[in-house]
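Format notes (please read before filing issues)

Several people have asked whether sequences and structure tokens are stored in separate files. They are not. Every record keeps both together, in the order shown below: the sequence lines, then the token lines. Line labels are part of the format and must not be stripped during preprocessing.
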Amino acid sequence: MTDPFTSLRLDGRTILVTGSTQGIGAAIARRAAQLGAQVVITGRDTQRGEAVAAELGGVFVRAELTDVDDCRNLVRSCDRLDGLVNAAGLSSRGTLDDTSVELWDRLFAINARAPFVLIQEAARLMRGRGGSIVNIITMASHGGEPVLTAYSSSKGALAILTKNAGYQLQPDRIRVNGLNIGWTATEGEDATQLATGQPADWRERADAASPLGRLLTPADIAPMVTYLLSDASRMVTGSVIDFDQTVHGPYGAHLTTAPRGET
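Then the structure lines:
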């Protein structure tokens, strides 16, 4: 007999995944659906979102995460909620010198304020039943490259929110965890690399230069997220896990110094 407290299954649970019309968010939604969850797909692209929802037997709710009311209504549209994954994010480039206040505000609106509002609303819906919230963060939250000033700062804020909310929501049996994911090959990352002048074979070069032989993929990340949503991780909360092949602290000449990207 399967121990329900160590089960990786998500049967009967409703899971809301932001940014789930493509990339990492879509991979997480697919994995959750495979494990028995009812998934709520959300994003700005209605056509793509409805296609993913139809594929997974879920529902699509269009939302603009820069709009606070959209964020609140997104959660309120759910009759119940057992899991929330904040996978949506914006990674526009800018150094300390050339980042505009408008770009700073937009990055914080999507990467920090939207998760705050969604967590706030989700917690209100989860109280009395418990639940799990997972924030997709980034290794750049440790500081990041100079060209990622606002992005790194906004994701650093999300990392702190993860710990703060995880502590506050313990009495309600609502767990909050985050993943600092490393350089991940997605459609969005491909577009970013090409737009910044990288060659068409950037992915092959990056794979070859990676310590473990390749970049992360959405398929690597999704199982860790569903683990954190499941009862198997019932004793884990307030944790921000480095999910990458870069180890912070030690260093040595055997490691590659190839340029990196950030998710």
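For reference, the curators noted about this record: The helical segments are 23-34, 46-56, 68-76, 101-126, 149-168, 187-195, 202-209, 218-229. The chain has a mean pLDDT of 93.
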